[in-house]
Amino acid sequence: MKSATRTAALVAGAVGVLLAPLAALRAWSDPADPRISVGAPAPATLLPGDVRDATGRMIANAVWTGLTAADPASGAPVPAAAESVTSPDRRVWTVRLRPGGRFHDGSPVTSRSFTDAWTAVLREGWTGARLIADVARVKGAGHVAKDGEVPGLTVKDDRTFEVTLDRPLNGFPALLADPAFLPMPDAVLRSHDWASYARNPVGNGPLRVAARKGGEIELRRPSGGRAVVVKAMPDAAEQYAAAEGGDLDVATAVPAARHESMDADFRTRHLVVPGRTMTYLAFPGWVKRLSSPTLRQAMSMAIDRPAVTDGVLGRQYSPADALVAPGIRPGHRDGQCRLCVHDGRAASAALTDAGGLGGPVSLWYQAGSGDDAWVKAVAGQLRKELKIDARPRPADLRKALDDRTVDGPFAVHTTAAYPAPVASLAPLLDFGDSYASGLVEQAEKAATPEDGVIPARLAETALLRDMPVLPLWSAHDHLVWSGRVRGVTADAFTGLRLDRLTLAD
User: Fold this and answer.
1) Domain 65-196 falls under CATH 2.60.120.10
2) What does the longest C-alpha to C-alpha distance in the chain come to?
3) What is the DSSP string of 462-501?
4) Does the structure show a pLDDT above 50 at 16?
5) CA geometry: angle at 62 spanning 210 and 220, to 5°?
6) In b/e form, how buried is each residue of 379-408, taking b as 16+ CB within 10 angstroms?
7) How far is residue 356 from each of residues 253, 289, 383, 386, 405, measured CA to CA in Å?
C-alpha cells in the first residue's frame, strides 16, 4: 500500500479548515441522523448458531456476550459471560457462569441457555454444528437426533455445566468465543420458533436489536445512549463514497480502485485487518508424478502472489508468507515461507532438479465458487515460468476428491476456528505427513495454548519443507471512517467492534 506524499511543514489549523472540502466538514457537523452509522452487506441471518458471514459475526458479537472473548491486545481468550473455564486434562471442561447474567428481555442466563442452545445447533444442523462436532469434538455431538441429547454436555446447576470432548484440546476456551457457542433464552429454546428469533433476536450483550427496517439494523445499549445502525450496503464503492462524503461513519469495505488514494482520503482513519481465511494449492497424495517436494517448491516459486492479489483479486487479499493465517496473533510469525517469494529463475532450476514435468497439469477447483479468475492467472504464471501445460479444471471438487479422479493441484480454502497457530494447521492434515500430524496433536494437547506454540511451529516447518500444500494468500478486511467517530477497533475473529464506537467530543 503506497502512502500519499506528506507536506514537510505543518499547516495552521485555521488554514486547514478553510481549505477543507465541504464534504469533509459534513462529518464534523451535527447530522440529521445522530446515530453512528456502519455500512456492510446485509447479514444472512442473526440466528447465533447459524451465523455464516462477516456482518452476522460483527452484529452477533455486539448483541451477545459469549463465554469467552479475545483479549484486544494479545488475542488470547479471557472470561466474558463465564467466570471461569477450567480443566485438569484439557478434555473435561467445567464452565462456571458469572452471577446475575440476564438477556435483554430480563430472563436469566443459565447453564441451559448455553447447553440447550448448542444442542439446538446440532439438532437443526446449523452452520455452527461443524465447530461443536468436528472442531471442539464434544462427545456424542456428531450423532444427535432431532429429539436427542448430547452426552458430552452435563448441567450441574444454574451456573455450572461440564463439557466432555473426545480428545484434549487446549484451545477450547478460545473456541468458545465463536457465535456457534452463544446462548439463547429459554422461551425460544422451548418454542423452537427460530425464524421469529432470527428476525428479532434477544441477546445478552452490550447492544440490543432495537429495530429492523428498510435495510437497517438499529442497535442500542440497554441503558440508553447513542444508537449504532448497520446499513445494508453491499457495494464497496458506495460505502467508500458515503464515508468520504460524511454520510456514513464507518465503511467496512474499500474498492480496489481506491486503495492507492485511501491514505490521502482518510489519512489516519483507515485500517487493514489481517484475516483468518487462507487459500492454498494442495497436491493429491495418490498422484506419483507430483510427489517430489522439489517439484512443489518449483511451482511455489513460480507463482507471483502479489500480481494475483493486486490484479484479479482486487487487493482484497494479502500474499501468503506462511501457512498460518496472519490474523492469528498468539504465536504468529511472519515470513516463514521463503519459497512463497516469486523467483522464476530459481523455480526453473528447481523443476530441472526434480526431473521436469511433462504432459498437461490440471488445476482443480470448485465450479461456481468464484475461483475462476485467480486459477486462470496462476495457470498462466506456471506456463510462463515453468513452461508446463497448466490448465484450469472446474469440477464438483468434493466428489472428484472422494472418487480420486483429481490428478493435479487443487484449490483449498480454510478458516481458522480460533486464534491459535494450530487452528490454521489442523485443517491441512489431510495433505500432510504423519510427522506433522503428530506435532499438531501435541499442540492441541499441550498443557496450555502457549505450550502448544512450539509444536505448531515445528509442524508448520515440516509442512513447508515437503509442501503438500502451497500457501497462496489470505483474505483481509478494510475499514475507513469519518472524522466524527472514535473507537474503531477490529480483529479477524470478531470483526468491527460495534459496542466500542463513540463520537468525538
Assistant:
1) no
2) 71
3) HHHHH-SEEEEEEEEEEEEE-TTEE---EETTTEE-GGG-
4) no
5) 30
6) bebbeebbebebbbbebebeebbeeeebbb
7) 43, 10, 13, 9, 23
Q: How far apart are CA 250 and CA 280, in angstroms?
A: 31
Interatomic CA distance for residues 141 and 268, integer angstroms: 47
Q: Report the pLDDT value the prediction gives residue 432, as an integer from 0 to 100.
A: 67
- Confidence (pTM): 0.90
Q: Is residue 17 predicted with pLDDT exceeding 80?
A: no
Q: Grid coordinates standing for 147?
A: 429429539
- CATH level 3 topology of 33-42+205-269+482-503: D-Maltodextrin-Binding Protein; domain 2 (3.40.190)
| Sequence ranges of the domains in the chain | 33-42+205-269+482-503, 65-196, 275-476
3 state SS of 68: strand
Establish how many alpha carbons lie within 13 A of residue 492's alpha carbon, considering only the half-sphere containing its beta carbon: 25
Domain 275-476 has CATH 3.40.50.300: no
Cβ within 8 Å of residue 388, ≥6 positions away: 351, 357, 361, 382
Task: Say what the alpha-carbon torsion angle 44, 45, 51, 55 is, to the nearest 10 degrees.
Answer: 60
Query: 372 Cβ partners below 8 Å, 6+ apart?
Result: 365, 392, 394
- Residue whose cell numbers read 504464471: 381
- Reading the block at residue 108, the C-alpha cell is 436469566
Q: How wide is the angle at C-alpha 423 spanned by C-alphas 46 and 146, nearest 5°? A: 45
**Given a cut of 80, is residue 24 above it in pLDDT?**
no
